[in-house]
TrEMBL record:
The keyword Mitochondrion does not apply. It comes from Stappia sediminis. Keywords: Glycosyltransferase, Transferase. GO terms for molecular function: glycosyltransferase activity. This is Glycosyltransferase.
Amino acid sequence: MKILVAVCTRQRRLQLRECLSSFAAMTSVPGVELEVAVIENDDGEYSKAEVSTTSQTGDISVEYYLQREIGIPFARNMAIDIALGKSVDWLGFVDDDERIDPNWLSAMMEAAKRFDADVLTGPVAFTYETSRPHWYDGDLDTPRRTGDVLKTAATNNTLIRRSVFAPDGMAIRFREQMRFSGGEDSEYFYRVSDRGASIRWVADAVVYEKVIEPRLTKRSQLARQQRISANNVSIHRRRFGRWASIRRYLPKVALNTVKASILALAAALTLPASRKDSERLVYSALKALSASYGILQGVAGKTPQAYLQVDTVDR
């Protein structure tokens, strides 16, 4: 069995180096040939040297590719083309700021044997560059068990069977019109499941992501909430039509507004006793309002272009 894992990267050389080094510690699986393709999505070969130093990570071959057309869907579609050219059985995606657990491959292959799945996806465990702010409430995943069936997934920890993207199969590719909006991976996997393919959860196939300090600001988190809400509406509209998305999401604007008002009042009442608790409540209120604003953007057919710039710690 042949597996290609794609790591799409842009302006994250140090994080990419850590990501690639984690493959060296991965437990091999008999009968499985694993390769890694690093696809740099930039105007030049800024990370090629990092790949050259790890071109052979243990028994795993690492190859470098450059996609000059800026936008992550273009890089992911290049990964599909590379996978087709190599005639692999599975195409995987992990992010360039992640480290892969040593048992990741064995957990994925065990799940591939147990379940008739077209997509396998697993959890992301978060670590932090600095201590988490007291108001931060992110990264709370829904508890799932191995084998649970999902409607969508993300490309931060995923294996896709060849039949999903091959021309003689479903021939599903990433939507390049969503080049800077984010959410194109969720949209992709919704199309996969809507076509009748099976997406299964693999609880033991873990990757680890270090959350860098710039992401742990209120401004960053509120912008993220706005973007996610806008993308959710946009994806629902593509799947079910404009009016269906309006009926589903517009009432949430009113509910979020009421929620924000209640939280703001609670924050004012809590302030004399605890400034930190009050600040948490204020943040929750702002988060509800950001979600409402994102919904209105999505209903209007506008989505934030959040990935015009990359949050990075190095060049």
